[in-house]
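# nightly structure sweep
# worker-07 picked up a monomer target from the shared queue
# config: single-sequence mode, recycle default, output format = structure tokens
# input follows
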Amino acid sequence: MFSRFSRIIKYSHISTMIVVALISFIVDFGSVGKVRETGSRVTIFVNGTAVGVIDDAGKVEELVIRARKRLAKESDGLTLINCDIRTNTKTDVFNKIDDDETVVNNIYKVFSENVFKTKEPVYEVKINEFTVNLRTAKEVHQLLIRAKQQYDETDDFTVDLVLDPTRELNVLTTAVAKSGEIEDTEVELFPKAGVPDKVDRIFATALNQDVSQFHFGVKDLDFGENVEVVQAYADPEKISTLDEAINLVTKEKEKSKIYEVVAGDSLSVIADKNNTTIENLIALNPGTITSAKSLIRPGDEIKVNSPEPELSVVRTEEVYYEENYNKPIEYVNNDDWFTNESRVIREPVEGFRKVVADVTYRNNNEESREIIYEDVVVDAVAKVVERGTKVPPTYLKPISGGRMSSGFGKRKAPKRGASTYHKGIDWATPVGTAVYASSGGTVVRAGWGSGYGNVVMIQHPDGKETRYGHLSKVLVKVGQQVGQGQKIALSGNTGVSTGPHIHFEILVNGVQVNPLKYLQ
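# output follows
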């Protein structure tokens, strides 16, 4: 089939080449055809060189075409020439007239001296934005065979080139088909993986059914990219040998692509799937992945770099394997708990099964796995987890602006009576700055608080508490419900204080923790 279509292209090429060769010059005929006076003498100049004198300006184009044809016959390629043709007409009956053959020879000679590029006919193979040029149709066929051969060592699939029905011009594309049923597929395939002989008998016993319904090995194979083959012209230095083309097309290179996160993915799993590292994922996704612990969800799209050839091969294999397996986790929702609360109701029990599956690979990377038969020897028991459904509250900085003047933890006491272990964060800010509730909750304290001066304390739904100290004015009352961002006080300099500021604490189970770990 390939040779038939290559002949179609070849015949169309020959006729096209002749036509193109005839129009491949840049010609300025000047005053050709304008003078046909009795006794006129027309001198023809090619690139400034006089090539002959004729008596009829209308013959100039004919003589130039004859010289072109002679030059075109000497090359299989497309010849480009720097060419400027002009004429000079005088009425001079004594000027010698040259015969047509002499003029054609002279034009041909100048043309030959001004050839600046000869392009050769090639078969251009285009794969997405990548192209490679080969001299013969046979080399194109060999290139495609070699590309699929590393995933089809027994040549169970054939590659043909067919006319692309979606294109108006003569453009070829690939068609990959199975060459025939494989004999003794099971015996051929599995000994390589250490499976004993008598494979069909073993499978029949292991699967408890007739193994003939399965066809282990490669079921389907095709190229992962659209391939277009057209005939064109190229500079000799841009034409590859077959070995060079095979290396260009099949050698793996780092390529950037978008990966959609699926259930069960983690950064390490995604890195393994794409033959890369977590560090590379972080570097490629600075806005979404900041560390190895960054949260990802199914449906998220992240950029990955993975080594891939220019022409990928997608294949589906039917395989048999035995494995320990776990059932998916079963969840029991608790609407009274936050989403960060959970407990295990039942621990899982691992099962054991024998499986026949269709596994799809892109090159050597698994893309999907569909179980078409399983024989469960030991049934797995799913893990059961009770989990909350309420979104936990978030915590925001309680003021706008301000300068952090003291962090959480050990410090030198700023004045007598102050603690050497700071249990919150201080932001220096002018007296009267608005103080907002870091999160929504119930006011449990509002008033004087010894060293805190005027203080507000809020209890939050997740059990945490926030404390706001050294206030100049309290704007809420005990028992009042406040929302996140609601104005609750004004900053001040009351209690044991070294200057105007707001003191802020977050307490977990009644113990102060570093607020910076919780602030959004």
